[in-house]
Amino acid sequence: MKAKIPATIVTGFLGAGKTTLIRHMLDNANGKRIALIINEFGDLGVDGDILKGCGDAACAKDDIVELSNGCICCTVAEDFIPTLESLIGRENPPEHIVIETSGLALPQPLVRAFGWPEISTRVTVDGVVAVVDGKAVAEGQFAANLAAIDAQRRADDGLDHETPLSELFADQVASADMIVVNKADLMGDDQADALVVRLTDQARDGVQVIRTSHGALPIKVLLGQGAGAENDLAARHEIHHHHHDHDDDDHHHEHSHDDFESFVVERDEIADPVAFANQVSEIIRTHNILRLKGFIAVQGKPMRMTLQAVGPRVDTYFDQPFGQQPRKTRLVVIGQAGLDHAAITKALSA
Asked: Which helix (H) or strand (E) is 81 found in, with range?
C-alpha cells in the first residue's frame, strides 16, 4: 500500500500571519512538491494572489486551489473532499498538501473530514498549526483588527456570528499540534516568554509553542510532524460546539533561520531501544527540543532502527540492514537557538 500523503492544516485569525508563514515555507521548499488549498470568501481574500505571485516551482498555478464558497468547515462535502480527491488522484501527486483555512474556520470538522472513506486511506493530517498574532493575543484581543474579522464573519451566512472570539481561539488552540506565536518582534522578551508559557499551559501535553517573526519557520520544523490528527479527535475537544448558549500587514522580508539550530550527536550501540526511547522523550522535555531524528544501532540486531521524535512523542521502527555502514547511533537535534549542546550530547550518550 502506498504511504499516505501528509497534509498540514494552518489555522489562525485574519492578520495572524498564516499567508506569510506559507509564503516563507514555499520560498524555502528546496524542491519539495507542495500543493495548497486556500479558503477565501467575501471581499477580504488576497491570499491566493500573494501566493500565486511566488514564481517558484514549489507553488505552480495548478498546485494552488482556492475555495471561496464559504468557511471550509461548513463546505466539506461540496468543496473540500472533491478538491482533495483531485489533488491526490493526480498522476504525479504532491508530496505534501498545505491547507490554509479562513480565520474563522473550526479546525475539528476539517480534521474529521480526513476520516471520510473517499480519502482516509490516501491522506493523513500531518499536523494542525495554529498561528497567533503574539502581540494582539498578549493584549487580550486575539487579533489586531477586530473590525476586519467581524466583516469576514458577516460575509458568510453559514457562520455562527455570535460566538465570542475567545471560544473560537480556544478551539484553534485545542486542536493544534503546533502553536506559532508570530510577530514576536513586536513584543518584549518578557511578554513573549509569558505568552509562550500561557499557551503551553492551555494546549494539550506535548504541543509545541514556537516564537517567530514574519512566519519565518524552517520547513523541517513546520512539516513532518506525523501527528495523524484524524485518529486523535477525542483529545481535540470542541469548546465551540459544546457551549452554544454561552453569553458572552504582511510585507516581503528576507529572513535567515538564525533563531533555529541543529546539531548531530553520535554514540555507540544501545542495548535497550525501549529504554532509550523513553530517555530521549525525557531529554526532549528537559531541553525543549523541537525535533530529534536519526538512526540507532541496537546490540545484536542486524537492522538499523529509525527514530523520529516530534516534541516528547517518540516513534521507532527497524527499516533496513546496516550493510557496509558503520554500526553507529547518529541523531540530529533541532530546536530554537540557545540549545545546550554539551548537556544534550551528554544526556543522549548516557
From this structure: helix 81-88
Question: 151 with 198: CB under 8 angstroms?
Answer: no
**What are 178's strand-pairing partners?**
129, 208
Other Cβ atoms within 10 Å of 66 Cβ, number: 20
Same domain, 134 and 15: yes
Q: Is the pTM here over 0.85, yes or no?
A: no
C-alpha cell read off for 162: 455570535
Task: Establish if 66 belongs to a structural domain.
Answer: yes
User: Pick from 93, 30, 91, 67: which is nearest to 222 by CA?
Assistant: 30
- Is the domain of 198 the same as that of 278? no
The range of the structural domain enclosing residue 321 comes to 260-349
Q: How far is 51 from 22, CA to CA, in rounded Å? A: 8
% helix, strand, coil for the chain, step of 5: 35, 25, 40
Contact partners, residue 308, CB within 8 Å, separation at least 6: 226, 291, 292, 293, 314, 315, 316
Give the type of residue at 311: G
Residues of the chain where predicted confidence (pLDDT) is lower than 50? 41-50, 53-55, 161, 240-257
pLDDT at 172: 87
Instruction: Give, rounded to a whole angstrom, the gap between the first and last alpha carbons of the chain.
Output: 39
In a domain, 255, yes or no: no
- Domains: count for the chain: 2
**pLDDT score recorded for residue 16:** 84
The angle, 0 to 180 degrees and rounded to 10, between the axes of the packed helices 189-202 and 165-175 is 80
Question: Domain end: 191, 210, 242, which one?
Answer: 242
Partners of 127 in the β-ladder: 8
Give the model's pLDDT for residue 322: 82
- Give CA–CA dist 175/14, Å, rounded: 18
Alpha helices in 235-311 (DSSP H): 239-242, 273-287
Contact by Cβ (8 Å): 262, 294: no
Helix (H) or strand (E) holding 174: helix 165-175
Contacts of 282 (CB under 8 A, 6+ apart): none
pLDDT of residue 155: 61
CATH of the domain at 293: 3.30.1220.10
